[in-house]
């Protein structure tokens, strides 16, 4: 039996979710709710969408993510929530509280880079590297609605910070060392004998890269021509590339089918917001 999916939000990223769901035979989109749209596939309210679906995929502006997810969980629906999950840690804590009281429902946060084949491969490499290490991350792009609502840290830097925590555990220290207005941030993070600098900006053009420097190993990952590439000690590492969104959606379905709680979880989303907000306090 197919899992009935309801999609909330039909902006540019919501449309990508819709296209990818239509490629997954185990799922059936039973409706979309977005007040800006009318048509055959669109429901006239969130309530009517909740009645029709088993699981809700939430791709709405950041200031509506947590409230929509809470409504879906309280309707006993599984939820996939786009990052940053909430505009602040307070909203994320409320969402976690509701999620904890609905443990039979899968609640997953859309940290898509965890499903990027290059970063999955890097996870299998980084645990064997001998420190001390230095990691440089850069993520640049054009201004987005999320950035306007939450700032560049919770829009772009959050991806790299989540990957670092996924690889290395909880940070010992995090602080924003340099900010210029709205569009640029530099975060310094320390994990034991590994130091990281995360640069993010909404100044464009699109740039994505990671540089890892260890005593005996150097690793370079970067985005080029619609895909990531990975090099270690000047040789390209073979990666079976695929776009990560479809894999992310399939994993969400797998968790529903197996009755397993996912990673990234609501707690992972909360920790990211807590780390970012704590870093801002450290820097003030």
Structure characterization notes:
The protein has 284 residues and is α/β, with parallel strands linked by helices. The protein has two domains: 124 residues, NAD(P)-binding Rossmann-like Domain (Rossmann fold, 3-Layer(aba) Sandwich), CATH 3.40.50.720; 141 residues, Dihydrodipicolinate Reductase, domain 2, CATH 3.30.360.10. The chain is 38% helix and 28% strand. The protein has nine helices and 13 strands. The strands form two sheets. The chain has an eight-stranded mixed beta sheet with strand order 7-8-9-6-10-11-12-13. Strand 1, helix 1 and strand 2 form a beta-alpha-beta unit. The longest helix has 18 residues. The chain is globular, with a radius of gyration of 19 Å. The termini are far apart.
């Amino acid at each position: 039996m197919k899992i009935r999916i309801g999609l909330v939000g039909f902006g540019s990223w919501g449309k990508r979710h819709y296209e990818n769901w239509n490629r997954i035979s185990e799922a059936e989109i039973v409706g979309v709710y977005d007040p800006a749209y009318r048509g055959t596939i669109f429901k006239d309210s969130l309530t009517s969408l909740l009645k029709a679906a088993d699981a809700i995929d939430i791709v709405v502006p950041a200031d509506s993510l947590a409230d929509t997810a809470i409504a879906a969980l309280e309707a006993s629906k599984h939820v996939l929530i786009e990052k940053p999950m909430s505009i602040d840690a307070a909203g994320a804590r409320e969402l976690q509280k509701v999620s904890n009281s609905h443990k039979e429902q899968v609640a997953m946060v859309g940290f898509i880079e965890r499903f990027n084949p290059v970063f999955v491969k890097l996870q299998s490499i980084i645990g064997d590297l001998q420190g001390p290490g230095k990691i440089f991350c850069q993520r640049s792009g054009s201004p987005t609605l999320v950035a306007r609502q939450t700032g560049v840290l919770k829009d772009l830097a959050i991806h790299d910070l989540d990957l670092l925590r996924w690889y290395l555990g909880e940070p010992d220290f995090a602080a924003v060392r340099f900010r210029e207005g709205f569009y640029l941030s530099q975060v310094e993070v320390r994990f034991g004998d590994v130091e990281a600098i995360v640069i993010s900006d909404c100044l464009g053009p699109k740039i994505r890269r990671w540089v890892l420097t260890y005593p005996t190993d150097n690793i370079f990952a970067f985005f080029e021509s619609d895909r990531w590439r990975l090099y270690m000690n000047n040789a390209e590492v073979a990666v079976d590339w695929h776009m990560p969104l479809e894999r992310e959606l399939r994993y969400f379905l797998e968790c529903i089918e197996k009755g397993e709680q996912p990673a990234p979880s609501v707690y992972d989303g909360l920790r990211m917001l807590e780390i970012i907000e704590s870093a801002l306090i450290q820097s003030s």
